[in-house]
Structures are given as C-alpha cells and as structure tokens.
C-alpha cells in the first residue's frame, strides 16, 4: 500500500489470515467506556446505565458544555463500572486463570484530566474487577503522554521518550513468559489510536507527517511482537486471540459513513478477528452480525467454563462459538444501540437497531427516522423510512420495547433551551 495514503499492517493482516474475520462486527456504543463495560460484563450500555464515555473534564463541566443550546439534555449516565458487576475476568480467575490487564481501562471515575496521575477511584481499577495484574489501567481515557514519563500511577516510567505502545507490548510479552505454564487471560488494551496523536519521529516520517497512520503502524508492530512471543513459547495452538475495537475509527472510515461518536456505521462497525489454529478455521470470514455483549458468553463456551460457574450472571449477548469454530449459521436477531448524547457529528442523541440487512436510527431531538438497507447501501446514503414505512415502524416498535426492557435512561427537555 502507498504509505502516503494508507498504512501497512502486516501483523494484523497475518492474524486475520490465521483465523476468522467478522465483516459485520459492532461496538455496542460509538464511544469507548460503554463498549468497554459491555465487553467485560456481557451487558448492554443501556442496562449498565453507562451510555457515554466517562468525561475526563468532569461530569458537571461536560454536561454544561454538551447541553448548551440543545433542546434535550443528555440522559443520565454513571461514571464507573460498579464493583457489583461481575466481569469475565472474575469468572476466569475463579476458574484458575492468571489474569492481566494492560493499557486503557477508563472505567474508574470522572475528572481524570485534572489528576496528576490518572487516579480518581483506585478501588475501581482492573485489580478490583478480577485482574491479578494491572499495568496502565486507571481513570484515563487517553494517556497524559505517549512518551515516558507517563504521569500514570499504574505504570512505572521507563527511560525518557520510551513509547507507551511499545512498553505495553513488552509488558505483554513478559506476562506471557512468566505464565506460559498456566491458563491465562491477557487483556491488552492499547491506548492507541486515541488523542493526543503522538508517535516516534521516525515512524511519523515514514508516513510523511501523518501521526494517525504512524500510531496505527506502532500498534501493528506490537501486535506482531505479542504474536511472535506466543509462537516462540509454543502456545499458538492453545491460545485464543481476539482482536477488536471499542468504537469506530477516529477519522473517516470509507466506505462506511462518519466516524467515532456517530450511530452511522463508521461510528460503530469495527474490526474483529478470532484466531485459534486447529479450532477456528483459518482464512475465513463471517458476515453474521456480532456485538460486544457477545464476547463474554462466547468466551465461556470457548474455554469450557460450566454454566454453573456463572449461573447468577445475567448475560444479554449470544454465544457465538459454534459459528466461529464450526461455521454454523444463526437466525437473524436484533442488535441495539442507545446513545442519548450530543456530539459534533451526525446521528447522535439517538438509538438504533439492526435486524438482518435493515438498520433504523431514531433521533430524539427531531423524532426523525432513518432507515437503511445495509446490503444495498453500506454507505447509508439513501434513507428509506418514507418508502418502507411498515419496516421502519416495525423496527421502531422493537427498539422502543428494548429501551423499556433495559430500563434505559432517556434524555429530558432542557429548561434552558
């Protein structure tokens, strides 16, 4: 690929060829914290009452800024993952796994931008949610700096100008070395790609000054570093690898419309790879829609954790392991999003549903419906709501029923509007 216009990702490409790529994979929210919480718990952001990213600037300042001049106020949302929620890390730890979390957590309190070290509520860090080891996980949604010193109390500083993405890759390899004889869970959550856009100069120069592409390149390098370590230790045929993102791309994502923060496909459709040689068929793709709440139940089946070991946990997702390992089919089901929050791009302050090839977005301020046939219109250019009225109303009815079932928080009229 021409580096002036794109990025080469040989290691992620290699991972994709080694397993199954989902072409219709979704984050459960167009921003990070809600998706991260849903991955860990198997519950939707609406059920968790965490439908927006946890603001680094603090909740009061954030809401004042976002609600100004708007007809509706943002719906209420919580600023942390409650300790009462059970994560898949806790289940695996209880079943003898060594567990490590490396990188971005962003589920531990609001106002991190005003801290000196990213710590708001230390009891809400990964080590309080089932992880034996936590390196880098705190309230930060983005690092104070990608270069050491990191100003993060949960990771020791390295040599000056050490790059965070490289450091997390090294820490992952060290964990693998130390735990190669044990069952382990390594949750490697690169802060990349997120603002501030920073990368080593030589990598930025490789892309003619494009920091975004340089950061993608560095992430790919460290994905390769971890994959090579797994192979070197002889763990490849016994290690399930999942590659996934918590929201759509930071920049535009053609042919998908829009980007992070939007309920258009560019804000919610994400890469997803499952790889386990000898079990997951290599070089395969799957077009069955997949969303982040499916990860927990799929892990339980893949790792053969008995249902009795997590019988008291309510999981909203589907076990997709037979689709992944045996390429079985699955009947159409509805996937939902609830994002009652303002952004500076399109299709926010809204909820959405996808069922089969059809997707409906319901915007709250205008009460406008947008209906798309994604099979024929992946770029969501043609709104069919006025032509396919029966389909639009049927999907809207299902969406409203789901919002009631999840007891979703809804936006209220703004008294200052």
From TrEMBL:
PROSITE patterns associated with the record: SULFATASE_1 (PS00523)
GO molecular function: arylsulfatase activity; metal ion binding
Highest taxon of the lineage: Bacteria
Pfam families (alphabetical): Sulfatase
Signal peptide: none
InterPro entries associated with the record: Alkaline_phosphatase_core_sf, Sulfatase, Sulfatase_CS, Sulfatase_N
Domain Sulfatase N-terminal, residue spans: 5-303
SUPFAM superfamilies attached to this UniProt entry: Alkaline phosphatase-like
PANTHER family: ARYLSULFATASE FAMILY MEMBER (PTHR42693), ARYLSULFATASE G (PTHR42693:SF42)
Cofactor: Ca(2+)
Keyword flag Calcium: yes
Protein family according to the UniProt entry: Belongs to the sulfatase family.
Protein name: Sulfatase
